[in-house]
Amino acid sequence: MAKVSFIIDKVPVDVRSAKNDFHRAIFEEMEKYVQRTLGTEKCPEHGQEPEVIYVGQDPTKLFPGVHACCDKMTRLVQAKLRI
Questions:
Q1: Taking the model in full, what pTM does it have?
Q2: Residues β-bridged to residue 72
Q3: What ranges in 1-83 are assigned the alpha helix state H?
Q4: How far is CA 62 from CA 7, 10, 40, 42, 54, in A?
Q5: pLDDT in the model for residue 17
């Protein structure tokens, strides 16, 4: 499954240690969305799973990015997530 990470105000955040229940709920829903949309998607060439990284100053204003093994996989994930 794709890895989902969050960086808030330049600091990596673990979902389970979120600042409060509201922020935790946001992170969990975003994780579920990525997992539901990508499922067990792996690069057809390299067999590696992608990482989706949400970055922003605040959990309510996050921007997604994709880290993948190659450009083809990056474009595939971006298309599936519509980013």
A1: 0.90
A2: none
A3: 21-38, 71-81
A4: 9, 12, 24, 24, 6
A5: 82
